[in-house]
Amino acid sequence: MKYKLEVTMSNLKTLSVSVASAIENQIIEGVLKPGDQVPSEQELIETYNVSRSTLREAIKSLVSKGTLEIRRGKGTFVCQLPGMTEDPLGLNFMGIDNLDPYLYEARIIFEPEICSLSAQRATDAEIKILQKLSDSIDELDKQLQGEETDETIIKKLYEKDKAFHIMICRTCQNPVLERLMPIIIQSISLSYNPSTFKNRLTKKPRQSTHNKICKAIASHDKDQARALMYQHLYNSIN
Fold first, then answer.
1. For the whole model, what pTM was predicted?
2. What is residue 30's three-state secondary structure?
């Protein structure tokens, strides 16, 4: 299918903007979904009837906006969260050495209520994913006990913990929160430090609260889910 691009000037910049807009519209309309591979360069040139340089300029602009990503040797793909840059809040430019206290404070404001929504809205399939993540966290936690330093396990535990919280955000069925909270949660990785993370692990109760949170969500106990998430985050920063 060929597209007729309506432009008022036949210069490279105007054409590339039009092509980028057309590709964005396909993503918005669901023709291209997050994770999908974009058609080849030649296919896109034929589809939009533009030159190679114009198409590359359009792709470059979409990559810079966090809409597309180029994987070497594989092709161009739609980002999992189209339109989101790596640091959308500009935290790297705030000039604050340790943002963790502020990020956790923001999480304490939002996540307990998100967890409550999750307890009301999570599907059985989503709960199974949460339980699997919780089990992985508990297993890694057991491996870490008694180890003086094992940065590989600490890193895996950190990533699983992050995935657990992001999954809860996805199960709350609120498209705004599904996008907002992962930004805050993943921003903690900007200042990730294995020693700091391990210190947090040693301060928390030996029995992981992840499994308790998961059970509260599975039993659709919104009040218990809210309370457990608040306590979990409070323990992480105190």
1. 0.68
2. coil
